[in-house]
Amino acid sequence: MSDRPHASVSAPPEHDHESTPRHYPDDYDLGDRNPADDIFVAERPWGTFQQFVSNEQVTVKIITVQPGHRLSLQKHDHRGEMWQVLDVPIDITVDDRHWVAEPGETVWVPRNALHRMGNSGDRPGRLLEVAFGHFDEADIERLEDDYARCPDAEQ
User: Fold this and answer.
1) Model confidence over 116-144: pLDDT tens digits?
2) Is the per-residue pLDDT at 65 higher than 70?
3) C-alpha span between 86 and 72 (Å, rounded)
4) 82 and 108 Cβ atoms separated by less than 8 Å
5) Does residue 75 lie in a domain region?
6) How many other C-beta atoms lie within 10 A of the C-beta of residue 79?
7) Most confident of 1-5, 32-36, 54-58, 61-65
8) What's the Cα-to-Cα distance from 49 to each of 21, 23, 43, 44, rounded to whole Å?
9) What is the CATH number of the domain that holds 127?
10) In Å, how far from its chain's centre is CA 53?
């Protein structure tokens, strides 16, 4: 017999959100569905939580961009990415749109979109990245890079 307590049958549910997906499974696998459409916030007695994805195959990273630095201008054939800005404002490029995303902002980068993030501030900045689709670092096509990692591209 176990000494661990058993969950009460009458315990309140942890989720009050409908768990049935509102998309076709292949949409995420192909990197074609904007997962920001499925983000929700749930209230709890202790505060809230924000759910980004449920029961999907994804790759999750936290990216730290040092002050005065930026990632390459790039695109991916096999994945889309959702970014959540965590700490400080981050300079964002997605295709022809350029803006400064504030902490808490969610950014969707569709598959094959040109994109870049940078930090023009004076403190390191972090982003949570959730990649949807087949993840492989070799899927990065760099068009511009401050660190000479794409020798044929215009620097």
Assistant:
1) 999 999 999 999 999 988 888 888 899 99
2) yes
3) 20
4) yes
5) yes
6) 24
7) 61-65
8) 19, 22, 7, 8
9) 2.60.120.10
10) 10
User: Which strand (E) or helix (H) includes residue 27?
Assistant: helix 25-29
Q: How many domains does the chain have?
A: 1
pLDDT for res 101: 98
Contacts 24+ apart (CB under 8 A), 49-55: 51/17, 52/82, 52/84, 52/128, 52/130, 53/28, 53/130, 53/132, 54/19, 54/21, 55/21
Domain for residue 59, yes or no? Answer: yes
Residue 1 domain-assigned?
Answer: no
The reply to whether 42 falls in a domain is yes
Name every residue whose Cβ is closer than 8 Å to that of residue 126 and which is 6 or more positions away in sequence.
62, 63, 64, 65, 86, 87
**Domain limits for position 37:** 25-144
CA 83 to chain CA centroid, nearest Å: 3
